[in-house]
Specification:
Length: 139
């Protein structure tokens, strides 16, 4: 695992710091996830930062103030704990499931009056997913 700030270039960092609400980022990422992109929602305050290695291997952190949906139960689930945001749970989906991702955390709301956050992706091992989730921190 490597420090996640490497894929966040100065321009992307400035864009994230300019969002309407606090931003969570992973503190650690697998070393091959070297490219980061920011996607924004036009209607609601929402964002998605995707850390890419390939189309089959990526992790995304999504933040939203409203309009979150239910997280479908997976084929397996694990809990994790982040020093800065507390406990969470991640669902793992078997290949061929209806989910378009291999894993997804339940929505995290670290601050009672704040935004909701979710981590999802494809192509990571279970131990990599848990390490990334446990490393979530405030930007």
């Amino acid at each position: 695992m490597s420090d996640a700030m490497n894929p966040l270039n100065e321009s992307l960092l400035q864009d994230l710091k300019g969002l309407e609400f606090p931003v969570l980022v992973p503190g650690l990422l697998p070393p091959d996830l070297t490219r980061a992109t920011l996607e924004r929602e036009d209607q609601d305050p929402a964002f998605r930062v995707v850390f890419h290695a390939s189309p089959q291997r990526w992790v995304a952190l999504q933040g939203a103030c409203a309009g979150i949906g239910d997280v479908m139960p997976g084929d397996a689930a694990e809990t994790f704990e982040s020093d800065q945001i507390g406990p969470g749970q991640v669902e793992f989906y078997d290949p061929g499931s209806q989910e378009p991702v291999d894993f997804r955390t339940h929505w995290l709301q670290p601050r009672a009056d704040g935004a909701f956050y979710s981590l999802s992706g494809q192509g990571l091992t279970e131990s990599e997913v848990l390490a990334v989730a446990s490393s979530l921190r405030w930007l």
